[in-house]
Amino acid sequence: MVRTKKSGKFYLALIIFSLVGQVAWVVENMYFNVFIYKMFRASAASISAMVAASSVAATVTTLLIGALSDKLGKRKIFICGGYIAWGISIWSFAAIRTDLIGQLFPNVANAAALGISLVIIMDCVMTFFGSAANDACFNAWLTDSTDDTNRGAIEGINAMMPLVAILVVFGGFMGFDQDLPNTWTAIFGIIGTVVTLLGIAGFFLIEEPKMDTSANGKYFANILYGFRPGVVRSNPMLYRTLMGYAIFGIAINIFMPYLILYYEKSLAMDNYVFIFAPAIILAAAFTAFYGKTYDRKGFLPALIPTLALLMGGFLVLYFFKATPLVFLGTLIMLMGYLSGMAVFGAAIRTYTPQNKAGMFQGLRILGQVLLPGIIGPAIGAAVLQNAEKITNTDGTQSFLPNENIFLAAFIAAAVLCCALPLLRKKEN
After folding, report:
1. Any idea where the domains of the chain sit in the sequence?
2. What residues does 391 pair with on adjacent strands?
């Protein structure tokens, strides 16, 4: 099989849109958790509620905009316009501060509780723009622009971006004092500006793929296209793969919202960036090469080693707290996480019907974001329900994440391992 070559312009658009998009998601998925924890003393339940609300917003948005982009046969305008609005919405979080809330709402008894509510609401607004641009249309554009000869290799690049983004964010802001409100004003301002500028640049970088829209039906019918029984029966491997991806995502979301807090607060690693950064670099490099395994061997032969790495990392992080072993566990876990995302992502693109990628992006987000975003953090919050508490300098209390989140994640991954024979049988 001759591999289809892509242009340098395609790879430039892939790398910067994927990376900057993931930088914005890092701010939401990991920094918002730290933001409301440090600024508003949020509980694990509040963090779980925020992740769940954002997951619902992402799924609904992707269903609506994905089907619309298919109907119109356009990706570029949604990607570029969405990134611009996405960046502007990130700026708005700079105004959510306890001092400003107290000035605007002097009669509110609990400014911190109102601050948490405002963050959750604005998180959903920001997610609307981000999911329209990235989840719905950028991912559909990537599916439209690849084929079976290059999908694994390209998905390997795309899949490593979430953790490269973590490295960029934490490395770029490691010198900032996150206990100060002005720090968050700067963070949101910088990220918002970068995302907005990229949206403008996209009008010159992204090439609109050729799409055949003649077979696409009415818009409102297309929104629920992926949920039709006939479509499910016609694409069994797509739906089985999505269910597997959902279980994989649940395992990740059990611990990920609390991971940085675990390093910083529970393990007292003030220099956790120096643990996290090398692990991310090595895991990203591994994933960039591992994605080609999917092109050579197929779905399951490429997936099984990633699950072994992921679960091995969970065990090391559960049993050990010494810095060298925490680094080792983090590295192994991230290698399994990123390479697993690459394999699942490539398989989903392979099984997605041609010219209908937008209609299926909402379904993809259902498995990749909604179910993991609701179930995973809820399990994590339940595991941490009786976690140790610490008293802050202002007299308030905060919870300390513990190693049980990794045990719970290991159990979730074990459930996925039990389901692998079903995927193998159907694939054969």
Report:
1. 10-209+216-427
2. 397
Residue with tokens 């312009």: 9
Residue 107 token pair: 């009669």
Rg (CA), the chain: 21
- Give the per-residue pLDDT at 357: 67
Nearest to 70 by CA among 233, 219, 270: 219
- Give the containing element (helix H, strand E) for 427: helix 404-427
H-helix segments, 352-402? 357-365, 371-383
CB 332 within 8 A of CB 312: yes
| DSSP type of residue 3 | P
Q: What number of other Cβ atoms are within 10 A of residue 356's Cβ?
A: 23
For 234-247, what is each residue's pLDDT tens digit? 888 888 899 999 99
HSE toward the beta carbon, residue 49, CA cutoff 13 A: 12
What CATH code would you report for 10-209+216-427? Answer: 1.20.1250.20
Global pTM reads: 0.71
CA–CA gap between residue 401 and residue 384 (Å, rounded): 6
- Over residues 79-136, the pLDDT tens digits come to 999 999 999 999 998 888 877 877 877 776 677 888 888 889 999 999 999 999 998 8
Residues of the chain with pLDDT below 70 are: 1-2, 29-30, 108-109, 212-217, 355-358, 361-362, 392-396, 424-428
